[in-house]
Amino acid sequence: MKGAGGFDHNRQSLRVVEVLESKYPDMPGLNLTSEVREGLRKHEEEFVRIDPQSGTETRYPSPSLEAQIADVADEIAYYSHDLDDGLDYGLLQEADLDNIELWRQCAQQVKQEHPDFDGRGFRRQVIRNLIDLEVENVVEATTTRIVDAGVQSADDVRTCMKPLAGYSDDLRQANGQLRKYLYQNLYYHPTVAEPNMHGGELIEKVFKWLIKHPEKMSGTSATRIESEGLERTVCDYISGMTDRFLISEAGRC
Fold it and tell me: How far apart are the C-alpha atoms of 192 and 196, rounded to whole Å?
């Protein structure tokens, strides 16, 4: 999509609920509040809030507090889940994780509270403790920032130049060590990276094929070509595919 508007998964999520979903006869998308849609723009550098009465737009440097919290919660869930999977599949090793401050701290807590606990149950309890630690830290650090900023309304939050929701400085630094370890040992591991690369090749193959044969798109997808353009229509179609359906479509090319 380079040169045709690009692709960003958060913006695509917004596009799904504003354009692609069709639930009502007189409007596209879903009937969601502006606050929900604002939360889907969580990685943008500038945020827009539309007044529901006048339709006027106001631009802010920060999203709502709810959107900020959802962003942090998403990160906590994402990395914790990957840590769990990496250990289950043997791509990560507990012995290596003992060198990571956060893991070591949570593992020691589990050993003290449950000295006879081991194996998979032990690993999962460590991850549970890690999630608890991060959530508690976010609540405390966010509360402190809210008080220090003196915000009194939702729009006060939006005018802050930096997000209020997030980790303390110490935990953010410790998280950085864990993230670096995951990238080096999990995300770039051949077992993970090679299928990802293959998936990218399949997406490119199907995209180019559908650009030449847009009539092969199923359902009503092709009807948006005139209004949305060929590239964006194909992009929308592929972005909604499951892995299995993508593989099936690649077999037709």
Answer: 6
The pLDDT tens digits for 77-91 are 999 999 999 999 999
Q: Is 33 helix (H, G, I), strand (E, B) or coil?
A: coil
Query: What is the three-class DSSP state of 47?
Result: strand
Rounded Cα–Cα distance for residues 182 and 83 (Å)? 7
CB 70 within 8 A of CB 39: yes
Q: Which of 69, 90, 204 is nearest to 145 (CA)?
A: 69
What parts of the chain have a pLDDT lower than 70? Answer: 42-46, 52
Angle at 245 between CA 243 and CA 248, to 5 degrees: 110
The encoded tokens of residue 225 equal 């070509």
Domain ranges of the chain: 65-188
Full-model pTM:
0.82
DSSP state, 117? -
Greatest alpha-carbon span in the chain = 65
Per the structure block, which two tokens stand in for 174? 């410790």
